[in-house]
């Protein structure tokens, strides 16, 4: 009989699920790391929330551990690389708290629009300041939403009930999916900012979305906008928000998440026109029960039947297949991540071509790895190796696979990924080199050999003398060291590309400077 440890406080329903399914379960919340290390080797599975940190040291000590289940979305408290190396599956429960987070978003928006917390505090002091707390109506106004995944779609549905027009920005949503949701899609953030009356964000926190709502964005917005964040701290630049609130550009704001948590101090605390809650988006009795039941069911299904659901670190493959697949899964992750970070328009179609030896392997896990890495940069947390195909289907993205037994000369295996958006087509091809190391061997039809690791600067340009030197000068003047400079071109004077491995991050200002160079078509940074 498999044995599971519930290491955090969790709804009693989870324990009931395990027992009903014939799984031996111990409920021991509040263990110290030392106490947990002494007993974790007894268990096949561990169920946690956010309090317990499963470090690499603890996972190494868990000699029988097969699965870790997080009752919730975020898994920052689990060392996933070590778990993967040990063959431990890490699962989460991404859908149990979607409704409660959507409802909290609505509550914060209304509370901010009507100054409810400040008015409550004033009234408790015996004041009667009706004129001080003049509010705003939401009906008939335009809601601007960034990200319309699982939670975002529920938020849209509820705000439409308030008779609001919804303008959405989500580069990974198709026009067809937007029509089903009844929202208008903005083609760019430049078109998005000036039109909105209320802003809410529902994206993951990634290098691409960090401070996406910044001083420049506030400058482009109408005066008197209302801002809400129930997603992740850091998506909104809190310093820029403070300035916008002080100046009156932002009428009111409501934050459930912060750049640094727990949020013990912040200039925002000084302002009356800010509603603040301590990351309560998932804090309802119903949500906590839902995620506890969901993770108990998932852990049980895996231990008893081998079924994998909402896994974050491994596709559904047998133990015999994994050694041959593992290097291709790594390559697929790199190719998908590259395209995902370069793409800025609604995706309509993804085509995957397998040539040579890889075409004879189980391809679904490889394709899933591509989709997971490609969709993750712009979607809320919840995309994983298992549900990535379903999320693509829900967003109206067609995914196809094509195989070819023979491989072009010089290679034993190739994976080519073509992504078609409403604006353009991109294509990347990769292969495995010495010791199964992933390499990019072609980009948009231009042959190249590049190593997808660390910080990789992508520059597309028209072949012209002196351009390489000017790129190097800009990077050098910014103190950015070049580790490798990979070049490729179609023909003299034709399309050319560069993949540049750099030792430091490349700020947005430097990317803009590169993009302004003569003959440069685009310059973007890909982080692995």
Which bin fits the share of residues in helices?
25-40%
Shape: globular
Could you give me the name of the CATH homologous superfamily of the largest domain?
Answer: NAD(P)-binding Rossmann-like Domain
**CATH top-level class of the largest domain:** Alpha Beta
Identify the strand order in the major beta sheet.
8-7-6-9-10-11-12
Structural class: alpha/beta
Radius of gyration: 25 Å
How much β-strand is present in the residues?
15-25%
Number of strands: 22
Summarize model confidence as the mean pLDDT.
92
Largest sheet: 7 strands, parallel
CATH architecture of the largest domain: 3-Layer(aba) Sandwich
The tally of domains stands at 4
Low-confidence stretches: none
What this model shows, in words?
With 528 residues, the chain is an alpha/beta fold. It has four domains: 3-96 and 287-311, Rossmann fold, CATH 3.40.50.720; 98-276, NAD(P)-binding Rossmann-like Domain (Rossmann fold), CATH 3.40.50.720; 315-443, 60s Ribosomal Protein L30, Chain: A (2-Layer Sandwich); 454-528, ACT domain (Alpha-Beta Plaits, 2-Layer Sandwich), CATH 3.30.70. 33% of the residues lie in helices and 24% in strands. The chain is built from 17 helices and 22 strands. The protein has helices at 12-20, 33-39, 56-61, 80-86, 98-113, 116-124, 150-160, 175-181, 189-192, 215-220, 238-247, 285-305, 322-342, 364-375, 388-394, 467-477, 508-515; strands at 3-6, 24-27, 45-48, 67-70, 89-92, 142-146, 165-169, 184-185, 198-201, 225-229, 250-255, 274-276, 347-356, 398-404, 413-421, 425-432, 438-443, 446-450, 455-462, 482-489, 495-502, 520-527. The strands form four sheets. A seven-stranded parallel beta sheet has the order 8-7-6-9-10-11-12. It has a six-stranded mixed beta sheet with strand order 14-13-15-16-17-18. A five-stranded parallel beta sheet has the order 2-1-3-4-5, with helices on both faces. The chain is globular, with a radius of gyration of 25 Å. The mean pLDDT is 92.
């Amino acid at each position: 009989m498999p044995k599971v440890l519930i290491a955090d406080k969790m709804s009693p329903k989870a324990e009931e699920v395990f027992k009903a399914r014939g799984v031996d379960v111990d409920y021991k919340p509040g263990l110290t790391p030392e106490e947990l290390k002494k007993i974790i080797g007894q268990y096949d599975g561990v169920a946690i929330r956010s309090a317990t940190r499963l470090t690499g040291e603890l996972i190494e000590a868990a000699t029988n551990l097969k699965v870790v289940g997080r009752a919730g979305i975020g898994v920052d408290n689990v060392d996933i690389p070590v778990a993967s190396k040990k063959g431990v599956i890490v699962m989460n429960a991404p859908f149990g708290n979607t409704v409660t987070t959507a409802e909290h978003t609505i509550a914060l928006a209304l509370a901010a629009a009507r100054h409810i917390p400040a008015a409550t505090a004033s009234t408790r002091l015996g004041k009667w300041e009706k004129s001080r707390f003049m509010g705003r109506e939401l009906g008939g106004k335009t809601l601007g939403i960034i990200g319309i995944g699982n939670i975002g779609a529920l938020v849209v549905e509820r705000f439409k009930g308030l008779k609001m027009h919804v303008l959405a920005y989500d580069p990974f949503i198709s026009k067809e999916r937007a029509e089903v949701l009844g929202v208008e899609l903005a083609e760019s953030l430049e078109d998005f900012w000036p039109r909105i009356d209320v802003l809410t964000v529902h994206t993951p926190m990634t290098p691409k979305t960090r401070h996406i709502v910044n001083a420049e964005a506030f400058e482009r917005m109408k005066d008197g906008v209302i801002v809400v964040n129930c997603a992740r701290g850091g998506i909104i630049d809190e310093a820029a928000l403070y300035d916008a609130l002080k100046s009156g550009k932002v009428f009111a704001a409501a934050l459930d998440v912060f750049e640094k948590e727990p949020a013990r101090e912040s200039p925002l605390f000084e302002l009356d026109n800010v509603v603040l809650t301590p990351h309560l988006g998932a804090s309802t009795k119903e949500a906590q029960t839902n995620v506890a039941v969901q993770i108990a069911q998932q852990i049980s299904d895996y231990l008893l039947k081998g079924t994998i659901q909402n896994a974050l670190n491994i596709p559904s493959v047998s133990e015999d297949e994994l050694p041959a697949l593992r290097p291709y899964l790594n390559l697929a992750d790199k190719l998908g991540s590259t395209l995902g970070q370069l793409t800025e328009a609604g995706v309509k179609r993804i085509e995957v071509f397998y040539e040579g030896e890889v075409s004879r392997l189980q391809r679904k896990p490889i394709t899933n790895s591509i989709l997971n890495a490609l969709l993750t940069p712009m979607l809320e947390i919840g995309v994983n190796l298992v549900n990535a195909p379903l999320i693509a289907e829900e967003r109206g993205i067609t995914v196809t696979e094509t195989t070819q037994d023979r491989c072009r000369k010089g290679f034993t295996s190739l994976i080519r990924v073509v992504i078609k958006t409403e604006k353009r087509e991109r294509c990347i091809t990769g292969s495995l080199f010495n010791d199964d190391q992933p390499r990019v061997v072609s980009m948009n039809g231009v042959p190249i050999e590049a190593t997808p690791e660390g910080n990789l600067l992508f520059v597309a340009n028209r072949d012209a003398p002196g351009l390489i030197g000017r790129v190097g000068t800009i990077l050098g003047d910014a103190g950015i060291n070049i580790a490798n400079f990979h070049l490729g071109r179609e023909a003299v004077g034709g399309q050319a590309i560069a993949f540049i491995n750099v030792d430091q991050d490349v700020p947005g200002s430097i990317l803009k400077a590169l993009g302004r160079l003569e003959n440069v078509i685009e310059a973007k940074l890909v982080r692995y």
